[in-house]
Amino acid sequence: MRLATIKVNSNEECCMVIDEKCLLISDLNECMNKGFRTDFLEMIENDEIDSLNEYYKNLNNEELKLFSDKFLDIKNVKFAPLYRKPNKIWGIGLNYKNHAADLKEVSPSEEPASFMKPNTAIIGFNDNIEIPIQSNKTTGEAELGVIIGKKCKDIEMDDWLSVVAGYTTIIDMTAEDILRKNPRFLTRSKSFDTFFSFGPVFITPDEIEDVLKLEVSTVINNEIYAKNVVSNMTFTPDYLVSFHSKVMTLLPGDIISTGTPRAVHINDGDVVECRITGFRSLINSVVDKKIL
């Protein structure tokens, strides 16, 4: 199952994505007399993703025809972030060796280089990334996002999928010049407004044959800047979920952004894209606040 959040008048509502069409959960509820929540984060927090997915998989062609006048063309909808207030956003630094070499650093080999980001950094598809006044060298980084579906603690690697709701595309930003001044400035360099874009589409694990085979690409102005497969991560998603659950309790809607194959320097007017195999691309334009 594929889900997204789209803008409807002044609201943001969850929808199913079926081929090139979107079906609002509120319209599904009305047509089929269901009571699924229409807010993405509330759906995750109330453990409704699995039940909605089961319902979706059992829909037949005749039932789909009932929604024929409710489907929205995906080209005409305005995507929002999947949700805006996760409890936690974990980022993973230098998780591909190529990225570590790019920064003239050594890739961590024993434990992941984790950091946290505020939810005030969140933007969505087609929103502007703003280079802050304090930075003259900011980077954009395409990443695979893992979304936690259940409250959990001390999860072993073999059980990681039991607590995962699904995956999405992410573009993470770093004020690299601030970080280079002092590695202790990592949190500040990662936390500016607009420095975390995610969505537009969420995919449940049953639609991903092998997460390790997914190819992640950082794209700048429609040219692939760097790409790599998830299996080349130093710390793969199963390890990251297990590791961080042993640090602190993970909550439904928490996000783990698993690292980038390579970061690209972004400038005013650039268009940054995260491409991942089988996902709808996440695309954001860049605005330098110093030029405004």
What does this structure look like?
By secondary structure, the protein is of the alpha+beta class. It has two domains: 2-73, no CATH class; 89-288, Fumarylacetoacetate hydrolase, domain 2. It has eight helices and 17 strands. The protein has helices spanning 25-32, 40-45, 49-57, 61-65, 97-102, 176-181, 186-190, 237-245, and strands spanning 2-8, 11-18, 21-24, 72-73, 89-93, 113-117, 122-123, 128-131, 138-148, 164-175, 196-203, 215-220, 223-229, 255-257, 264-266, 271-276, 282-288. Strands 1, 2, 3, 4, 5, 6, 7, 9, 10, 11, 14 and 15 form a twelve-stranded mixed beta sheet that branches. Strands 8-17-16-12-13 form a five-stranded mixed beta sheet, with no helix packed on it. A hairpin with a 5-residue loop joins β16 and β17 (282-288). The mean pLDDT is 94.
SSE layout:
Elements: E1 2-8, E2 11-18, E3 21-24, H1 25-32, H2 40-45, H3 49-57, H4 61-65, E4 72-73, E5 89-93, H5 97-102, E6 113-117, E7 122-123, E8 128-131, E9 138-148, E10 164-175, H6 176-181, H7 186-190, E11 196-203, E12 215-220, E13 223-229, H8 237-245, E14 255-257, E15 264-266, E16 271-276, E17 282-288
Parallel strand pairs: 5-14, 7-11, 8-17
Antiparallel strand pairs: 1-2, 1-11, 2-3, 3-4, 5-6, 9-10, 9-14, 9-15, 10-11, 12-13, 12-16, 16-17
Could you write a compact summary of the structure shown?
By secondary structure, the protein is of the alpha+beta class. It has eight helices and 17 strands.
Q: Which key phrases capture this entry?
A:
2 domains, alpha+beta, twelve-stranded mixed β-sheet
- The whole-angstrom Rg is 19 Å
Number of helices: 8
Rounded average pLDDT:
94
How many individual β-strands? 17
CATH class of the largest domain: Alpha Beta
**What's the story with the biggest beta sheet?**
12 strands, mixed
Percentage of β-strand residues: 25-35%
Low-confidence stretches: none
Kindly name the structural category. Answer: alpha+beta
Shape: globular
**Topology order in helix (H) and strand (E) letters:** EEEHHHHEEHEEEEEHHEEEHEEEE
What is the CATH superfamily classification of the largest domain? Fumarylacetoacetase-like, C-terminal domain
Q: Roughly how much helix do the residues carry, as a percent range? A: 10-25%
Estimate nothing, just give the exact number of structural domains: 2
Q: CATH architecture of the largest domain, please?
A: Alpha-Beta Complex
Assembly state (oligomeric): single chain
C-alpha end-to-end distance: 41 Å
Fill in the CATH topology of the largest domain: Fumarylacetoacetate hydrolase, domain 2
